[in-house]
Write a structure and sequence with these properties.
The protein is of the alpha/beta class. A seven-stranded mixed beta sheet has the order 7-2-1-8-9-13-10, with helices on both faces. A five-stranded mixed beta sheet has the order 12-11-14-16-15. A two-stranded antiparallel ribbon has the order 3-6. Strand 1, helix 1 and strand 2 form a beta-alpha-beta unit. The longest helix is centred in the last third of the chain and has 17 residues. It is globular and about 55 Å long. The relative contact order is 0.14.
Length: 365
C-alpha cells in the first residue's frame, strides 16, 4: 500500500509533501513515495538548473526510468543536493524527476510508477500556487518546473489531485490572484503538523516551506525573502491547503499546455522564453557567473551584527516583521556555505528573535 506525492517544483515542495502526508494520511501503515526534482538554489548547488540521475552516485532503481535517492547517494562534485539528507532524516522514499527528456519523459516516469506502485492516492503538491500562473504575470519567477510536472500529470491515465499549499507564499502569485481558482479547503496546517519536518527546517533553505511551517505555528506579519527582497504577507490563509481542478489548472497554464510533447529540457526552456519571456535556468546561469566574480564577505560578529542592525532598521521602515536566513545571507554578501554559521551566530546572540525557522524583526529597537 503506497501513496504517491509529486512535488511540483522540487526543493521545499518535497519537504512540504512530508508534512502533507502526515497531516492528511497519518500513520496508516502505508509508505509514501515523493517524486521530486533535484533542483536546489545556488547556495546549495552551484550548477544552474536541475540535476539528473547521472549527476549522482549511489541511486537505486525503482523502475527502469525512475531512481530512488537513498541516504548514502551523493551528488557528483561540484553539484550539490539536499535530497540525500532528506532521505536520511525523513521516513519517506524520495524518487528523482528526470526533466532532461521533457514532459514526455516525466510522463513516462509517472506511468511507470503508477504501474509499479499501484498507489492508493496520487497528489500533485505545489507550495505557493505558481503552478496556476498563466505565464504573463509580472511577478512570475520560476514557472518551468511546476509547468513541467503539471504537463506530465495531465497526460497520465490515473486520478491525480492537485493541491496548493500556502497560497501566495512563494512570492510569485499573490493570494488575491489565486482566490477565485482555489477549490475546496482540504486542510489547515497546525503546529502539530510541522513536527515531522521540524529538524529539517533547521537546515533546509526553502523559504516558502519555511514560511508555511511558521504560519502553521501561528506566525503572522510580513516576511522579506529572496535576493530581491520580496515582501510576503503571513496571514490566516497562509497555512491552508486547497484542492484545484487539474484540468482547470492546465487551461490556465499556457506553458504547461505548450510543453506537453517536449522530449528535451532545451525545448521546455525555449517555450518558456517564448511564452513567459524568460527561462529561470537562464537567470541561474547569469547569477552563477556573477557569484563567481564576487568576493564573499568574511563572517564575524563584529562586522555582521552592525550590518544586520542597519538592514533591520530599513526593513522595519518597510513594515517587515520577519525574514529568512537565506535572505540575510545574501543581504550580508555572504557565501551560501556560511548560511548555517550565520544562523548559529544570530540565534546564539539573540535567541528570543528566532521564530523557527524565521528571524523576527521587532517593531522597535
Amino acid at each position: 500500500m503506497t501513496r504517491l506525492i509529486v512535488a511540483a517544483g522540487g526543493g521545499g515542495d518535497a519537504v512540504a509533501a512530508t508534512m502533507l502526508d502526515a497531516a492528511l494520511y497519518g500513520d496508516a501503515g502505508e509508505q509514501a513515495v515523493i517524486l521530486t526534482y533535484a533542483w536546489d538554489r545556488l547556495l546549495i548547488d552551484p550548477l544552474p538548473g536541475p540535476r539528473g540521475a547521472d549527476d549522482f552516485t549511489g541511486l537505486e532503481p525503482l523502475t527502469p526510468a525512475v531512481w530512488k535517492v537513498p541516504a548514502d547517494a551523493r551528488p557528483v562534485a561540484p553539484a550539490g543536493s539536499t535530497l540525500p539528507r532528506l532521505a536520511a532524516e525523513l521516513r519517506h522514499t524520495f524518487a528523482l524527476i528526470e526533466p532532461r527528456h521533457g514532459a514526455e519523459g516525466v510522463t513516462h516516469q509517472l506511468e511507470e510508477l503508477v504501474t509499479h506502485l499501484k498507489p492508493t492516492s496520487i497528489d500533485l503538491l505545489d507550495v505557493g500556487g505558481d503552478v496556476l500562473a498563466r505565464g504573463n504575470e509580472p511577478t512570475l519567477k520560476s514557472p518551468l518546473a511546476d509547468s513541467l510536472t503539471l504537463a506530465a500529470c495531465g497526460q497520465v491515465n490515473a486520478p491525480i489531485r492537485l493541491l496548493i499549499a500556502g497560497p501566495g507564499l512563494d512570492g510569485e502569485l499573490p493570494h488575491e490572484d489565486l482566490r477565485d481558482v482555489l477549490g475546496p479547503l482540504v486542510h489547515t496546517f497546525t503546529a502539530k503538523d510541522t513536527e515531522p519536518i521540524g529538524p529539517v527546517l533547521e537546515w533546509h533553505p526553502s523559504e516558502a516551506t519555511g514560511m508555511l511551517a511558521a504560519t502553521a505555528r501561528g506566525v503572522r506579519g510580513t516576511c522579506e525573502v529572496r535576493d530581491a527582497g520580496l515582501p510576503i504577507p503571513l496571514t490566516d490563509e497562509s497555512p491552508t491547503v486547497h484542492e484545484v481542478d487539474l484540468d482547470e489548472a492546465l487551461s490556465r497554464n499556457e506553458l504547461a499546455r505548450a510543453i506537453m510533447s517536449t522530449t528535451a529540457l532545451d525545448q521546455v526552456e525555449a517555450l518558456s522564453r517564448e511564452i513567459c519571456g524568460f527561462s529561470e535556468i537562464d537567470y541561474e546561469r547569469n547569477k552563477a557567473l556573477w557569484l563567481k566574480e564576487q568576493q564573499p564577505a568574511k563572517l564575524d560578529a563584529e562586522s555582521a551584527l552592525p550590518q544586520l542592525a542597519q538592514f533591520e532598521a530599513e526593513a522595519r521602515s518597510r513594515g517587515v516583521t520577519h525574514t529568512t536566513f537565506r535572505h540575510l545571507t545574501e543581504v550580508l554578501n555572504l557565501d551560501g556555505s556560511q548560511r548555517d554559521d550565520l544562523r548559529r551566530l544570530l540565534i546564539n546572540s539573540q535567541p528570543e528573535r528566532y521564530t523557527a525557522p524565521l528571524w523576527r524583526i521587532p517593531a522597535t529597537t
